[in-house]
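The records we work with from here on pair a chain with its fold. Here is one such record, which you should read through line by line:
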Amino acid sequence: MQQTNIAINGFGRIGLLTTRAILNKYPNLKITAVNDLATKESLLKKLQNDELYGRFSLPLKANFFSEKDPAKLPWKELNIDLVLECTGFFTEKETAQKHLLAGANKVIVSAPSDTLPTYLLGVNFNKYKREKIISMGSCTTNGAAPVLKVLDEKFGIEKCFLNTIHSYTASQNKMYPNWENKKASQLSILPHTTGASKTIEKALPRLKGKVAGVALRVPTAVVSIVDLVCLLEKSASAETINSVLKEASLQKPLKGILQVVSEKMKSTDLINNPFSSVVEQGLTQSFGNMARVFAWYDNEYAYALRLSELASKLL
C-alpha cells in the first residue's frame, strides 16, 4: 500500500487527537513528521495517556522537530504530501504557505481563516477546487453548519443568531490578558466573540449577512453546544424540523456528520462522540417561522476525526 506522508505542525489538543485518529483509522496516511516546541518525550507521553480520552497504545514512528519558522522545516527532503497546520498561529494564506515554501504539497489549516477557502465535510466539500491550502474552519463552524445547511435548504433562513456555549480552551487567557489571576478565566463564564458566523458564510454563501454569533466560554473540560435561533422563510413545527434533520442525518452528504437523538443529554455524554453535530430533539422549539435548535459537539474529538477524514479525501 502506497502511503501519503503527513506532517503535523503543532501537537496541542487537535494535533494530538488527529494523530490518534490517523493511526487508528487510516493506514494509507503515514505521520512522517511532527513539529512542536515541546520535547519528543513529552509529546509521546501526551499521546499515550490523555487526561480526557484515556490511554493509546499504537506507536508513533515519526521525525520530531522544534522549529518556530515553518519555512525552515525539511518538508521537501521528507517528501511531505500534506501538512496539518494545528498551531493556531499560521492560519492565513501568507503564513500557511510557508509550508509550501518548505516543500510540502498541500496544507489544511485547523482553524478559521479570513484569506483561505473553507471546506467542511458534509456541507460544501463537494465544491473543493483542489486548492493547495485550505481551512477546515472551527469546531463550532462544523457543529453549526450541518444544521443550518438543512434548515436553509428545507425552509429558507432569513436571519440566525448563533450562541455557542463552549468548553474552556487554552486560548482563553489571551482573551483577558490583563487579568492578574489567569485562573479566573478557567472558573468563569466568559462572553466573547466568535468567528463561526463569518466562517459559516464562506461555507454556505446563501447565508452571507444572515448570521450573527456570540460565544459563552464555560468552565468545562470538553464538549460544547450551539444554540441556533433562526427566522425561517416558511413556518415549521418543532416536530417537522426534527423530522427533516433526522432524515438528512441518515443520508449523504451528512450521514456520519450529523446525528439526531431523542434522549436527554448532558455534556459528558458526548465525550468521544464522533459526529460534528448532535441535535437533541427535545430542545427544538418553534413559534411559527421562528425556530430554535440545539446541537452538541465534542469540540476536540469530533473535530480531530473530521480533520483526519478530510486529510484522507484531499490526496
